[in-house]
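input
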Amino acid sequence: GFVGAVVMAIRELKVCLLGDTGVGKSSIVCRFVQDHFDHNISPTIGASFLTKTVPCGSELHKFLIWDTAGQERFHSLAPMYYRGSAAAVIVYDITKLDSFQTLKKWVKELKEHGPEDIVVAIAGNKNDLGDIREVPMKEAKEYAESIAAIFIETSARNAVNVEELFQKISRRIPPLDPQELENNEAFKLTRQPPPSNKRCC
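output
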């Protein structure tokens, strides 16, 4: 039978971040993983990789986060990162309407070429700059609802809704059935208590 409640399954969930250059993909990841914001972050080349493990019910979700480059010349690399991903976070900048149009192109590409059951989350970043907003929240939210995506506005700078973004993704991932767990070697079991939120990397 199931070995008591102390045993937690660690599930590795690959997540990729997509979106225009400069919308704050790296800043969101940095805020989530290291709880840090760097004003002078340089554009990502290719992609960068970070992990963070968070408790979700009786499981531990280990996010394997691929932060992809937003620059057009790296676009052809994106399928390497979204293939096999449990979730994609598509980020736009609420102060740049163009970045919201790019987001729609990413959605279309994921629908055509991405995994069938990928969880899509739409994040409107830089919501601390509401006074120069170009993308109305209502419009973005309605768009997200129309494609059954998670929707949230974030501020990596002010640490607003970044944890929540990943919690929402966790909640969309169907929990494993304990029987399945015992028969599935791919999921590592751990007897340690859930990790505290201390800085990692």
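quick obs: The chain has one domain: 10-173.
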